[in-house]
Amino acid sequence: MTSSECRDLTHQYLDAILEVNKTTNLTRIASQTEAEILHIEDSLAGLPEIEAAPEGLYGDLGSGGGFPGVPLALATGRMTVLIDSVKKKMALVSGVLDELGLSDQISTYDGRIEELALDRPGSFSVLTARALSRLVSLLELASPLLSKGGQLICYKAHVDDEELEEARAVENLVGMRLVSRRELVLSDGETERSILVFEKVGCGKVKLPRRVGMAQKNPLKPRS
Ligand SMILES: C[S@@+](CC[C@H](N)C(=O)[O-])C[C@H]1O[C@@H](n2cnc3c(N)ncnc32)[C@H](O)[C@@H]1O
């Protein structure tokens, strides 16, 4: 696909999602201008990181209306799975992907991330997560899905020292390690973004996934 075909398809996808959003709440961002920045430009902010990740299957955790998953899938050509536990959202997204002829490359999984980790452990080379959970929970959710050397790319609005320390303190438990961090501001001049990349370095010391909900409700703590 040429870069202009890719841009056109990404915009067609966004337009279709905004249309569906008029009747069903897929995303709180409803205006076209805001969506162009927060859904397309922001989704593509992690493109250098996903391009640098090992080749193979890509998954977008807590994908909602398909962001950043769909723009990144189109830009990289990777086989992609969008993962969200809300069945209705995934059904609508899947309908839009069908309409645009994208379902061979981009599929949906309508269940919990923890359930997918039991079905398909170690099968992803790269994962993204935007607006999903604190870093400590993201590391735990991603680890069992990633193959060794696979990467988790986290899109965060703001990472304070406490959130980062909390995550780094469990790196050994979950077999993940921070490899890069980049800060940027979107073209609206005000939306700040941190892109953090963690790599799967080993199997860790805790059996994962834990019971559904635990990673987010009761995050791991370092053993004293
Ligand atoms: C705030 S939305 C973010 C959607 C999208 N990533 C974005 O940035 O526009 C978070 C999504 O994560 C999903 N989610 C939260 N925890 C999940 C889990 N454990 N497994 C699967 N989906 C989950 C929710 O259903 C929700 O659609």
Furnish the topology, listing elements before pairings:
Elements: H1 3-21, H2 32-44, H3 47-52, E1 58-61, H4 69-76, E2 80-83, H5 87-99, E3 106-109, H6 113-119, E4 124-130, H7 135-142, E5 146-156, H8 161-168, H9 171-174, E6 176-185, E7 192-200, H10 214-217
Parallel strand pairs: 1-2, 1-4, 2-3, 4-5
Antiparallel strand pairs: 5-7, 6-7
The chain binds S-adenosylmethionine.
Describe the structure.
Specifically methylates the N7 position of a guanine in 16S rRNA. It is an enzyme of class 2 (transferase). Its EC number is 2.1.1.-. This protein has 224 residues and is α/β, with parallel strands linked by helices. It is 40% helix and 22% strand. The protein has a single domain, classed as Rossmann fold (3-Layer(aba) Sandwich), CATH 3.40.50. It has a seven-stranded mixed beta sheet, with helices on both faces. β1, α4 and β2 form a beta-alpha-beta unit. The longest helix is centred in the first third of the chain and has 19 residues. It is globular and about 50 Å long. The protein starts with a helix and ends in a 7-residue tail after the last helix. Bound molecules: S-adenosylmethionine. S-adenosylmethionine binds next to loops.
